[in-house]
Amino acid sequence: MFSLRSFFAAAFTLAFCAACASTxxxxxxxxxxxxxxxxxxxxxxxxxxxxxxxxxxxxxTVALVRVQEQGYRSYSWEPKSxxxxxxxxxxxxxxxxxxxxxxxxxxxxRDVALASSLLVPEQIGSDTELRxxxxxxxxxxxxxxxxxxxxxERDDAPILTLVTLGIxxxxxxxxxxxxxxxLLDVRSGYFYGSAEATERRELRQSTLGKEEDxxxxxxxxEELAFEKLLAAFETTWPAIVAQHAGTAPAxxxxxxxx
Length: 258
Known about the structure:
- By secondary structure, this protein is an alpha/beta fold.
- The protein has a domain at 17-37 and 55-150 and 177-198 and 231-244.
- It has helices at residues 4-19, 33-36, 43-50, 97-104, 127-136, 158-163, 211-244, and strands spanning 60-69, 86-88, 109-114, 141-155, 171-185, 191-205.
- Strands 1, 2, 3, 4, 5 and 6 form a six-stranded mixed beta sheet that branches.
- The relative contact order is 0.18.
- The model is unreliable at 6-21, 159-168 and 248-258 (pLDDT under 50).
């Protein structure tokens, strides 16, 4: 005989299962750009950073490279190597043609190009390898960017779902995508500046458990975060141009063959 006690026991079981239903794991964390930008821990390293001077030609060609933590892989892309400190992502998800058009429209920008992972060595140990890839593209500036995306999920009313046969949307998924970038001089490694932006979204759906659903949300959140990052970068760019575009590029000594 069906009793109220058995009803709530079944409801509790479904609630527990619903809480454990999601198995989606984000592809990986963002690269620590503070490790790529010049760092200093001793007097000698501080002096080495101060000796880096802006050497870009103006108007400048800007190369964009997306980097993530070592071993990053998504559901649609895998790296060609798992070595090195960082992974250069070869798939274009958040980046759209209109984004590149916005960057090309900035003053004193000659051209903008997305770097291919084929130009980057399999193992990246410092910004030198990334700047070398940008140099092969004849770029003056290197814009490194990364995404750090996290998910949190809960079910607000599993018992209500049972009573309404799943009609009421009770599962809530929160996603936060933070986009960061640093701008480096391809020739000297000089650090021009940085920008950061975060997109937070909350979705409530009655059926939200497939990996494809979460993957789609991740890409959407990162695209919106990239939009905000571009807006922040557009705000920073005029100060960079005002400080550096009016000065002649510093001479860069040719590498010795001996």
